[in-house]
Structures are given as C-alpha cells and as structure tokens.
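Structure first, sequence second, as always.
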C-alpha cells in the first residue's frame, strides 16, 4: 500500500475513534446547566421538578453526560415540528450563555431532541445518551 494511503487510513481511524461531533459548544466548557420545566413538562411533571420549575446541574458527572449528549447529537435536516418539554440554559466557561429546547421523553428507547432557540437548528440526541439524560432528569 502506498505511503499516502496509509496516512489516510490512519486519519480515518482516528476520526472514527474520536468522532466528528458538532459545533454546538464551539469548543467551550459547560460550567452549569439550568433546566426549566415548560408547558409540555408541566402535564407530566418529572420527579426532579416536584418542588421547583428550575433544576440546576453543576456536578461534573452530570455535566459530562449533558456535554456528550450535546456534542454527539446529529443535525436534523429540514424543519422540526415539536412541543417544548424543557428549556435548557447553558452557562459556559467564557461567561456566555446559550438557550435550547431539550425534549427528553419519559419513555425508554426514544432519541432526544435539542433545538437551538436562536437559530432554530434541531439535533437528534442518540438513544443511548438520551437514556442517560432521562436517568438524570426524570
């Protein structure tokens, strides 16, 4: 195999291992996440929202799950029609904030939905990471 092909194969293997991800976080770290129970959420009321309309996540293990779910979510092509379960506010390490719709249904086996409220761009969260988010939120 020519040397150029070997380098291409190695590069593709590295991409396969690390993944391409998306640009949702623009390389920034999450300091804190606030989840607000929206209208759709109030009809099913997760246990974590029994005493409040806002749940804050600051523990490193929880933030890690959210970060993986956000960065590994796949862009949805076209328009997205959805109700709103949660509004998610990200506080980033540079002092900026981002607001998203986060739909994580109570039922197992369904992928989650992440929508940038500024751009309207939608992302599908992989089922395995949706399950981890569900365990934290519900």
């Amino acid at each position: 195999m020519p040397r150029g092909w070997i380098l291409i194969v190695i590069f593709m293997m590295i991409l396969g291992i690390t993944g391409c991800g998306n640009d949702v976080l623009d390389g920034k770290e999450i300091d804190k996440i606030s989840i607000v129970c929206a209208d759709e959420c109030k009809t099913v009321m997760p246990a974590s929202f029994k005493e409040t309309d806002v749940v804050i996540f600051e523990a490193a293990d929880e933030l890690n799950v959210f970060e993986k779910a956000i960065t590994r979510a796949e862009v949805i092509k076209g328009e997205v029609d959805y109700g709103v379960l949660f509004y998610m506010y990200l506080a980033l390490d540079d002092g900026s904030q981002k607001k998203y719709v986060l739909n994580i249904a109570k039922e197992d086996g369904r992928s989650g939905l992440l929508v940038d409220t500024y751009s309207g761009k939608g992302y599908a969260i992989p089922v395995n990471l949706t399950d981890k988010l569900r365990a934290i939120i519900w």
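Margin note: The chain is about 30% helix and 25% strand.
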